[in-house]
Automatic annotation (TrEMBL):
UniProt domain HTH lysR-type: residue ranges: 8-65
MF-aspect GO terms: DNA binding; DNA-binding transcription factor activity
PANTHER family given in the database record: HTH-TYPE TRANSCRIPTIONAL REGULATOR LRHA-RELATED, TRANSCRIPTIONAL REGULATOR
Protein known as: LysR family transcriptional regulator
Pfam families per record: HTH_1 (PF00126), LysR_substrate (PF03466)
Family recorded in the similarity comment: Belongs to the LysR transcriptional regulatory family.
Organism name: Azospirillum humicireducens
Highest taxon listed in the record's lineage: Bacteria
Keywords linked to the UniProt accession: DNA-binding, Plasmid, Transcription, Transcription regulation
InterPro entries: LTTR, LysR_HTH_N, LysR_subst-bd, WH-like_DNA-bd_sf, WH_DNA-bd_sf
Length: 301
């Protein structure tokens, strides 16, 4: 008689994903409302099911083995599919329209996957998406032209200055961005590739250079972030941005390049006061949850 296949426990897989995304078993226990020892027992059960060690000591923390890293990728997909299936079954009758805005930084890699998943789970909800700059998106939420918007706040802002109806999701570092291997010449004006004005990052970077007495010149401007990335990749100049959505060919410059520090900026999720319906509630929750790993990779705090 053939042996029955082993079924991985969805609760255990979810605990694994949360532990790896939030920095360990203690953080996972906090988020799941369980004790750390209970999470550790779940991970031990998972190792027994897989038949391979999944974790190794890395100083005071726990890291994944190669087998653990492989399983984590599958766990993320299984948990996401589980949640999508439940959403589809529970919310298929949900309908309506949600108008939502996003910064360009999230439009290429993250946005299609999130909206695609949302549409499969809620095919009767019509999503109207707009990509724009932070101030414009925030104003449209205030005016009621958008229900939701992910937008950058003010550089150096904090949760105390976040607008009413908005949640601060993270503080992201603002950085000088250049191709791998770039070296700034302190004897020459710094070449800048920038978004067209008005742009908060553009203004902030120029002000910091002027304050520090660092000569600069604008070598390229673009109305779109994709055009800006292409110019920086081509070596036309450095730019100012967060690591969010940064192409793999570009990197945030280290402090030894003798360029002024740029501080940090908040990423906020804004919601219009009039946007009170189940469709908006559902997309609001999905946006906040699905950004967790993206923000972690971008060095968010």
């Amino acid at each position: 008689m053939a042996m029955l296949p082993t079924n991985l426990d969805m609760d255990v897989l979810r605990a694994l994903v949360i532990a790896m995304e939030h920095g360990g078993f203690a953080r996972a226990a906090e988020r799941l409302g369980r004790t750390q020892s209970a999470i550790s027992l779940q991970m031990k059960k998972l190792e027994e099911q897989v038949g391979q060690p999944l974790f190794r000591k890395a100083g005071r923390t726990v890291a994944l083995t190669d087998a653990g890293d492989l399983l984590l990728g599958y766990a993320r997909r299984l948990v996401a599919l589980n949640d999508e299936a439940l959403s589809a079954a529970r919310g298929r009758a949900m309908d309506g329209t949600v108008r939502v805005g996003f910064p360009q930084d999230l439009a290429e890699r993250w946005l299609p996957a999130v909206l695609g998943s949302f549409h499969r789970a809620h095919p009767r909800i019509h999503v109207e998406a707009q990509v724009g700059r932070g101030r414009e998106l925030r104003e449209r939420v205030t005016q009621g032209a958008l229900d939701l918007a992910l937008a950058f706040g003010e550089i150096g802002g904090n949760s105390a200055t976040t607008a009413a109806g908005a949640a601060t999701l993270a503080h992201l570092p603002v950085a000088w961005v250049a191709p791998d291997g770039f070296r700034a010449d302190p004897e020459s004006p710094l070449p800048l590739a920038l978004l067209d004005a008005p742009c908060m990052f553009r203004q902030h970077g120029i002000e910091r250079l002027d304050r520090g007495g660092r000569p600069w010149r604008i070598t390229f401007t673009s109305p779109s972030l994709s055009g800006l990335w292409a110019a920086v990749e081509a070596g036309l100049g450095v730019t100012i941005r967060t690591p969010l959505g940064l192409p793999d060919t570009l990197a945030a410059l280290e402090p030894h390049h003798d360029l002024p520090e740029l501080g940090s900026v908040t990423l906020e999720l804004h919601r219009a006061p009039s946007a009170a319906n189940p469709a908006v509630d559902r997309l609001h929750g999905i946006l906040a949850d699905s950004l967790t790993s993206v923000l972690r990779d971008a060095g968010a705090q």
